[in-house]
Every structure is written in C-alpha cells, then in structure tokens.
Amino acid sequence: MSARRKKLLLNAFHMCSPSQQWAGMWTHERDQGLSYNSLDYYVDLAKTAERGLLDGIFFADSIGLMDKYGGDSSEAIRAGAMTPMNDPTLAVSAMALVTEHLGFGVTANLTFEHPFIMARRFSTLDHLTKGRIGWNIVAGFVDSGARAIGQDRIRAHDERYDLAEEYMDAVYKLWEMSWDDEAVQRDKAHRVFARPDRVRRVDHAGAHLKMSAVHMCEPSAQRTPVLYQAGASTRGRAFAAKHAECVFLTGFTKEMIRARVNDIRAQMSLIGRDPDDVAMIVGCTVITAASDEAAHRKYLEIRDYLDVRGSLAIFSGLAGVDFSKYDPEDPIEYLKNDANQSFMERTTILSKGKKWRVRDLTAFAPGSPTAGIFLVGSPETVAAQMIEWADETGVDGFNLVRTVEPEGLASIVDLVVPELQRRGAYKTEYVTGTLRHKLFGRGDRLSSAHPGLRAARKS
Description:
The protein is of the alpha/beta class. Helices cover about 35% and strands about 15% of the residues. The chain has 15 helices and 13 strands. The chain has helices at about 40-50, 75-80, 90-95, 115-130, 145-150, 155-175, 235-245, 255-270, 290-305, 310-320, 340-345, 380-395, 405-420, 435-440, 450-459; strands spanning about 10-15, 55-60, 105-110, 135-140, 185, 190-195, 200-205, 210-215, 225-230, 245-250, 280-290, 375, 395-400. α8 links the parallel β10 (about 245-250) and β11. α1 (about 40-50) packs across α3 (about 90-95), α6 packs parallel to α7 (about 235-245) and α6 (about 155-175) crosses α15. It starts with 8 loop residues before the first strand and ends with a helix. The model has no long low-confidence stretch (mean pLDDT about 90).
C-alpha cells in the first residue's frame, strides 16, 4: 500500500444490464440480474454498499452492443452479456436519495455527446447527490455505437484521445469559469437570483468542437465531478496522468499492475501534478464464505453458470477480434486495431512470453488473463491477499467485480469488510463532505495543480 493511503478504497463494480464481465451469472437461482431495469434493485444495491462503508458504486457503460463475435450481436443478445444496457445516470438519483455518503462513478462517452450537454448532466447529478458524483471519461471503442448515430465507424484510437483532450478543455471552462462562486445571490428581497456580471459566456473553437454558451447550471458542490479514467494504452495512461483523479486498472500479475501504477505517477510528476492526487483502483473478483473450504465450494458452484459464448462475445468486442473464427486451443496473437488496445496488450505483449489461448479468456479462475485479481477464500484469506496486493503494487483499492448479486456484494460487506477493519486496513466510519473530500481528505474542488483549473484561468 502506498505511504499516502493507510485505508483501502472499495467500489462495487456494476452495470445496468442482466450480467456484466462474467456473462451468464443472471441464470443463477440466487442472482437478481433480471431486475436490472427496476429501481428497487439499485436502491437495495446502494443500501448494501453504504452498509459496508464502500466508497462508491462504479457504473460501467458502453454505447453500442458487442457485435464482433460471429459478425453480429446475436450471442451477446442471447446471453444477456452486457445486453440490454440501460443508462446508468438515471438510477443515481434514487440511489442518492436512500444514502448519505456513498459515491457514484458513472461512465459516459464523450465521442457521441456534445460537451455542453455532458457538463449539464454531471452538474445536475452533483447537485442532486450533494457532491457525490464522478465521471468515468471514455471515448468508446465499438463500431456499433458509431453506426448507431450515423457514423461509418468509431474514430481511430489516437484520434479519440485528440478529441478527448479538446473535450476536457471545453467542459472545464463550463464547470470552472462560466459562473463565479459569488454569482448566485438568491436574494428574494431584491428579486435577484444571480448577478449577470458574475456569469460569463464560454467560447470554444477547436479542431473537433465548437461552442458558445453560458453553462446551464449554477456551481455545484464539486463544480467538476471527480474524474475517473480507465485507459491503459500508452495514450490512455498519458491522458490519465494529466486529467484523472481515480484511475481504474486491470491486470493479473503484481508486476503488470505495479508497472502501470508507477508509470502514471511518474508522468504526473513530470507535468507538475502531485502523484498523491490520484487514487489507483484495480479490478478484483472476490468469492468468500466463512471458511476457505466453503468459499471454494461456492466458487465451483458459481463457475458452472458462466456462459462461454456470451463471454467470448464480450471479449471479442473489447479486443476488436472475432474469436468465433478461432479454435479454443488457438493462441492469441497481438493485433493492433481501433478497439480496446490495452486488452490485446494485456493478453499478449505484457504477458511476458506467456501464450494465452482462446479458451483462457473465459476461465472463471485465478490467473486468467481476463479475470484480473481473483480471490477465493475466507474473510481472513481474502483480506490478507487484498492487503498484500496493495502493498506490492501501490494500488489504493479495488473495484469489486460483480458475480452473483446481491449475494456477492453482501458477502464482502458482511465478511471481508469487518476483517479489513480488524486489521486496520479499512475505515470504520465515513467522513462528511463531497466524494472528492472523502477520497482525498482535502477540499471539495479540483486541486490547485489540476489542468482543469489552469484551463479555466486561461480563458
């Protein structure tokens, strides 16, 4: 664990879909994934997460279906593999109403939406959650999303990051400079809600975007939402070093994760950001029960519900490779394309000579190239391994990957969290304040060295 952070961070990793990374889990008799389109499902999830003092619920999302496997989306649709997928922003208000401290990280794609609209949505969410919202910045990677809005295909990988840089400049101006803190008066006696001289129009004209507008929302508690980012490619890590406050990592060895942590923190130092101004969070699947033996039995039972073809539909979409054309024993070779480059790098180049086969992609097991960190055991075993991974990689916490829910999250809350607390590795109460304040123990707004503030000051 880094010297900066003495307590681990924990997020529930979710999606508004019947099943997520582990396709097919919705078919388990105890799983409630079929209620993915019910507010009750998300309200109960939020209550469970807050009961366990989790830092947040992180919602993954994608624009477009996984339609690479077999040349269409049939397998994803059949298996309920990230399909259907509802808009996660609409569940957050209900979840915020029944919680007081829980944060919400919401994935939203900047490629398909103008920054003026995006900025308004997240300011609204920040108001309604009283400062508990974060934005996971993504630029998309599936062609089906581009075709859905009339484009021929997704932008090239590096072009997406060019757009993202310009996009961030635009939203920073809206969030940080359009309204002064002193603008809003709420003066009933003088019939002045806000001072026009303290509100300014934002003008932006760049290679990809054009805008001339006053931000639609008054300043919220955080102004700019907490900024999450999950890009792991070379360009993605540079983007994270510049903009992110929370970075979501994937990897299945300590060496791989540690290298990415060190690279991003080093890049932050080079551009004048404090490396402690970012929290590193890694994906982690946890199967736990009262004893190691009971946890292993649960693992074997859950494993049988994995939908292999549905999972391959997901991984084909992530990799930009149609794995239906391969034999399960075929090795996976690096192929550069405009999909999720980090997925192919992780399963080939970064595996240090390890030759993964197509069948390995769907292994619901420790050591799988797609599983990330995979822990099976008693609360004592799982807590010890979490602390060990944090100590040896420098990550600050874990994104708890959805399995059979709500059972999976409840078991972590009821068994693992108390053990982490007993070991002094996890908080015993929430602190008051915004999500940014809870995560970093400082003010509600962006840190003074963040480029978002510099962009606003230059305007």
